[in-house]
């Protein structure tokens, strides 16, 4: 049987060029990872700001929907003559003939 020389896994390259290339690749990789980290950090901040804006706009949208529903209800009620008469008497202090309007002072 021919003897096969044992190859060690711990063999170090004797070539300085290989070491330099590996070091250059590692430096480039570190620079890229640093750039990616900074970019990711900035994007997370922007996403949080946008999320806050979306929450504020969603709340404003809900408030606007509620006002819209109230206005629609008021429009529907204004088609009723009794409601219109009540509103005129209360807000404009109108009275029918023969009625007397009394003011009660507020304390």
Automatic annotation (TrEMBL):
Entry keyword set: Cell cycle, Cell division, Membrane, Transmembrane, Transmembrane helix
Membrane-spanning parts: 24-41
Matching InterPro entries: DivIC, FtsL/DivIC
GO term, biological process aspect, one: cell division
Domain of life: Bacteria
Acyltransferase recorded as keyword: no
Name of the protein described by the UniProt record: Cell division protein FtsB
Organism, scientific name: Paenibacillus konkukensis
Name of the coding gene: ftsB
